[in-house]
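Q: Entry one of two.
A:
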Amino acid sequence: MSEDQGVWGASLRQERLDAADDGIDVDPFGDADRLREDQAKKNFAKVGSARPTTLLYTYGPGAVIDLPHFTIMPTGLDDWERIWRRRDAAPATIHAPRLLEAVQIMLGHQVSELRRFPWQPPRPGIRRDGDDLGVPARVFPQWLRCTGCDLLAPLSRFVNDYRNTHPFRPDQAIFEHRDCPGRLSRTSTARGRKGAAKRKGNLRSPCVPARYLLACPLGHLDEFPYDWWVHEGAHCTKAPKLELEMRDTSQRGVTAIITCRACGASRPMSQAQGEEGRRRLPRCRGRHPHLGVFDPQGCQAEPRVMLIGASNLWFATTQSIIDMPRLDPAEVTRDRVAALGRALGEDRALVKENAETARMLLKRGDAEAVRLLELSDAELIDLLRRLAVPTESDDDRLKRREEWNPVDLLVPEWNYLQQEPSGERHEDPASGLVVSPRKRGALPGGIDRVLAVDRLRKVNAILGFTRIDDFDRIDDTGARLVHLVRGSRPTWVPATEDRGEGIFLQFDEKAVSDWEARVLASPLWVAHRKAHRRNVERRFSETAKQINPDERFVPPRYWLIHTLAHALIREMAMSSGYGAASISERIYAWPATEQRRAAAAGMLLTTTASDSDGTLGGLVALSEPDRLAQVVDAALTGMMRCSSDPVCARRVPQDPEDFLHGAACHCCTMVSETSCERANRFLDRRFVVPLAGDYAVGGTTFASADLAFFRDVRLA
C-alpha cells in the first residue's frame, strides 16, 4: 500500500439505538489482536481502503460510505487517538502555519496540529492478516434488508452471519441471512415459511442496508424508525420480537412498503416524503452516529427523510492554502513564535527568558525550530517574551471569527504572486515554491501577466461538516458545523499535503474595473443578484434569514475569471496529459476594500498529487508564450458555441428561479466538482465572450455581446 492511501476499519458488533448504549466502542485493532491471538484466518476488522483526499472531501467522519455489500461511517477523531497509542511513532504532522491560524479561528486555539491521515506501510514477509488498520468506522445504517426474503431487521439479527475471511480481500465482507426462506406470497403463513426453508435447505441470502435515514439541517443523522412508522407510533401487540418486511413496488410514486409480518400492519414510505410526510415524522433526537452520542440539549429542527446515497447527506467543511513565503513581518514573527512554542513544549515555563536554554531545546525541534538557532540572543529573547503573552480569549476569537473572510487566506498568496521573481527560475527553500516568469506573447488584451509555477505545495484541512445544505452557502459556523470530536474542542484536525504545478494568469486591473462598471449597470447583473437573494432565502439554515445576501454575492470580476478558468481547464485537459478532473482552480478576484486588501484579478490553475514527487510538468509546459496563446484562443472560441444553444446562451434566472449561473451548462462551461471551488456556480459566458443573439429580462431584450470582456473574439 502506498503512502497516499488510508485504510478503513470497522468493528462489527451489535449497536443498540438508545442513547445510553449508542457510545459503543469501535475497536478494529482490538478485533485484529484477538484474531491474531486465536490464530484465526478471518479478517473481521478491515473493510476497505481510500485515499486521504477522498476521506477529506467525500467520505470523511460522519459520511456514509457505500461498500460492495454494506455501508459504514468513519467515526470521530476521539476513536482515532487509539491508533496513535497503538503505534510506536508519534503522529505525522504537516507544517502549515497560515492554515493552522485559520483553523484556530474557526475551532479554537486548542488546535495545535494538522495531522496526516493514519496509514501503515506493509510489513515485509508473508503474512496472513493483511496490513495494519487505519481509520476506525462503524456499520451505519444498522437496519439491513435480506435480498432473499425482504426481511427488515437490525444488525443484531445478522451479526453472527458476517463473513470476511480473506485477509487481502476486505471488499468481500458481507452480512448474510441464514436459513432464508426466499420470497413467498403475501398470503403465506408462518408454517408455509418454515416448510419453504426446509425445502430449500440452508439458504444464505446477502443483506443490504435499508436505504432510508432521518437528517436535519443542524447536522444530526439517525436511523429511520421503521417499527414506529409501520405501527404509527405504537408497537406490535402480537409479537415481542420485531419481524418487519420491506418490499419494493412498481406503483408510481411509491418506492417501498413496510409491513409487520406479525400483525399485518403496512405503511408506504411515500407517506414520509414531502411537506405532508414531514408532519408525520417523529422529532429529531439530535443523534451524531460518528461520535456515538446524542445532543444533550436535544434538537428542535425538523427532520426529513434522506436516502443513503443522497448527495446532500454530507458536505465537507475544508480550508486549503498554497504554501508561499510570508511577506508581512508580523506574520513571520507569529510563525517563529509558534515554532518556538512547539519546540519548548511543557518546558516553556522553565525556560522563561533564558536564551541559552532555549537554544538547547530548539535543537530537538522540527526544521522550523532549528532555523531559529540563526537568530541573535536579543531576537530569541523577544520571541520568548511574545510566547509568554496569553493567547486571546475565546470571546475575542469568536468576534474575530465573525469578521473573518475566507478571502483572507488568499490575500497573502496574491501578494506574493505580484512579486517579480528574481531570475528565470526562483525557488523558495522554506516552502518549496518554484516560479518562473513568462512573456505574454500573443495573449488577448486584458491578460497582463503570466507566471509558471513549476512546483508548489497545497495543504488541505477538514474542520467538520454539514448536512442538507453546503457550508459555503450560509456561513453559520456556530450553528450548523458538525464537529469531529465529542465536546467540539479538537486538539488536532486531519490534513493532507499535495504537491504539483500550475499556471498563474493576472488580468489588467484597469480593464477589469472598466468592464465591471459596465456589468454592474446591466439588467443581467440585476437578475443574477435577485436570483442569489432568492437562493439564500430558501436555504434550510435558519441563520440565512439573518444575513444580507448581497454581502455574500461575488463581484462581476469573479464571474469573469471563474468562467474563463473553466474554459481553460477544459481546453488544457486536451493538451496537458492531465484529465480535466485533476486540474483545479484558485480564483483571486475581489475589488479594493477599506481594509488592507487591494484589488485582485487573477487565477491559478493547478494540478497536484499526494505523492512526494508531485506532477510531471505537463501543465507548466503550456505556459510557454506560443502554446498558452493557442490554448487561450481555443478556449475563448469554444465558449462562443454550445450544443445547447440557443437555450444555454439565452438563460437568465427569472422569478421564482434561483440558480446561480447564466449562459453556462455541462456542454460548454461546467467542470468536475473536484476542479471547481464554487460547485459550478457563478458562471456566465456572456461576461467573457460576445455571444450571438439577445437575452431577455422583464420582457425587454438586450444584446449579449455588449457585456463581453474579450470583445474581439471571432469564430474560427
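Q: Entry two of two.
A:
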Amino acid sequence: MSKVEVENIKISSTLLNFINTEAIPETNIKIPDFWRAFDKAVHELAPINKKLIKKRTDIQKKIDDWNKLKKNQHFKLEEYVTFLKSIGYIVEEKEDFKITTSNVDKEIASIAGPQLVVPVDNARYALNAANARWGSLYDALYGTDVISENKSKSFDSARAKKVVDYVRNFLDEILPIDQGSWKNISKLKVEEKDLVLIINNEKRFLKDKEKFIGFNGDKNNLQSILLKNNNLHIDILIDPNNSIGKNDIANISDVIIESAMSTIIDNEDSVAAVDAEDKVKCYRNWLGIMKGSLQTEIEKKEKKFVRKLNPDREYIGASGAKIKLHGRAILLNRNVGHLMTNPSIILKDGSEIPEGIMDAFFSTLCALHDLKARNNSRTGSVYIVKPKMHGPEEVEFTNLLFGKVEEVLGIKKNTIKVGIMDEERRTTVNLKECIRKVKERIVFINTGFLDRTGDEMHTSFEIGPMIFKGDMKKSVWLNAYENWNVDIGLSCGFSGKAQIGKGMWAMPDKMSEMMNQKIGHPKSGANCAWVPSPTAATLHAMHYHQIDVFKKQSEIISRNKAKLEDILKIPKADRPNWSTEDINKELENNAQSILGYVVRWIDQGVGCSKVPDINNVGLMEDRATLRISSQHMANWLHHGVCTKDQVMNVMKKMAAVVDKQNISDKSYQAMAPEFEKSLAFLAACDLIFKGKEQPSGYTEPLLHKRRLEKKSIHQ
C-alpha cells in the first residue's frame, strides 16, 4: 500500500484519507495540528513501548533459567516467591487505597448485568451487540435448549406454553405478588401510582410496590408495564391482537428485559486486522457507532431491511412524568495490547508504529463525536479496555499513553477510562499495584481463563509438562486467581464504582448448560460477565435478577482473601504417565481447535467464529483459545510427552476433519492433502513447533505474518 509522508512519519494513504476526511471533520480539530502533535507524541511513546516489551523477554529468560534448574526438584514456594521478587516479577505491595474515577456511567458503575464482546470489523455484529441492551425473553427461551422439548420448523404451541410457564415462574421469583401468582393474572391496570393485578376478579399488588416504574397506553387499557428489580428493567408487553397475546389469560404478548448493559467492541482477539485496509474497516465501524450513523443491510427470508442503532425507549412514569431509558448497551472499545506493531504507519527510524498507540489515538479520535452527542456515554467518558499488560509498569505506560491522547485531542484529563484485563500472570500477582497506577481512570477489571492459562503455561514452560487442558479449571491456581481478582477489586473500592468481570461462555448453542453454570459469576461477586450473543445476554440477565450482586459483594469483602501462594502453584503434571490413547486424544482435541480457527483467520480474515470441536459441539474461538491450545501442544512436545512426527500426523489427520466440517462453505480452501501449499495449515503448525519461542506464547506474530502473506497473493 502506498505511503504518504506527514511530518516525520510515513502513513498509508488509506488510513490518512480516513482520518482526514471521516474521523477529524466535525471535531474542531485542525488537520495539520493533529498530525504535528501525533508525530511528536508517538515518537516519545514508541521507545518506551519497545523497552517494556524487551523487559518481558529479559524476565522470561530469568524464569526459564530458574525453572530449568528446578525442573526435577521439589522446591519450596517461599523460595519461588523470593526469586520472583528478586527479578522484579513481583513488586512490593504498598498501602491500601480506593479508586477515585469520576464521570462513570451507571451501566458500568452501579448496574450489574451481562457484557457482550463483539468483533468491530463486522458491522452487523456490532449493531446487534449495541442493540442488545433489550431482549425478548420469550424469543431467547423458545429458540434455545433452555426449554428442553425439540424445536420444530413451524410454530409449536406446546413449546410456546412451556416458555410462558417458565417466564411466569421467573416473574413469581423476582416480582412476587401479595397473595397470588403471575400465572393467574387475568388483567393488569394502573390505579393512582400502583400496578393492579386482577386475579379471580380481586385486586392484588406487588409485594414491593416500588418495583412498578411506569407504563405505556391507557391506565385501563395498557400496552406495556415497566418494572425494575436489582436496577434492571423489565418491560411486559400486552397485546390481545398478537398471536401469543390473544391466547394468554392476561394478553401478555412478550417480556422484554434489559440484557447487555455493556458491550465491548473488540479491536483485538476477535478480529484479524493486519494492515491499513483492515484497521480502517475497524475504525470506520467504530466511528459510525460513535456518530450514531452506522447501518447495514440485512437479508432474512428473502426480505431486505436496514439495521440501525436502536432509539431510546419512552414510558409514562408511575407518577405521570415521562421516562426515557437508554436503548443501547454502553460501549467500550478494546484496543490491542503493547506487543504488536502495524505497517500502517512507519516511524522516522524505519520501524512500524506500536499498534496499541495507534489504537488509542484513533479510537479516541472517533469517540470525540460521542463526547458531543452523548448518545453512548451520558457522562462524557471514553471507555477503552486494555488487554495483555504485564505488571504495573505497563499499566503506568497505558496511563501515560492515554494522557498524551487527551493532550493531543484537547480533552480533559481522565476523560479516557481504562479497563485492565487481568489475563497475564505478572498482572495478576501485582493487581493491586496495577490498579494504583490508574486509580483515577480505572472502570473495569476482569479475569480471562484462556489467555491467563496460556500465559501460565508459557511462563512456567521449562518446569515440566502441563496437566490436561480440561483439568486446568479444577487447579488450585485458577480458583485462587478468580477469587483474588474479586478480592483486590473490592478492597480497592470497586463496588458501585467500577466493573469486576468474569470470562466468556464459549458454547453459544448450550444455553441450558450456561443457565446452570453461569449464575456462579454473579454469586462470585462479579457485576458483569461475558456472553457470546444477544440471546445469551438476555438469558444471563436473569441471573442478575436472582442475585443481588452488590449485596453479595458486601458479604464477600469480609471473607478470607485468596492467597498469592495458591496463585503461584504451577499446574505441571507430577506423574505424566499417560496412555498413548489419552495423549493422542488430547492432541487431537487441541489440533481441532487450532486448525478450525486458524484456517478461517488466515484464508478469510475471520478473527472470531464458531468452530466445531472434536465432538462437533460449536465453540466460540478467538486468539485466546488459540493461545492455550497451541501452548499446550508446544509444552508437551518440548518435554517429550509426544514426538514431532506424532504431532504432525495428528495435525494432518485433523486438517482433513476440519475440511470436512467446512464442506458447505463455498469460500473455504481445503488444507488436505496438499498441506505444504496451505498457508493456514503452515501457520497452525508454526504455532506449535515454534510455540516456545513466541513472546509470552502469543499467536499474533505468526498469524499476522501468514495473513499478510495470504493477502499479498490475492492483490
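A: Comment on entry two: Residues 136-258 form a domain with the Malate synthase G - maily-beta sub-domain fold (CATH 2.170.170.11). The chain has a mean pLDDT of 96.
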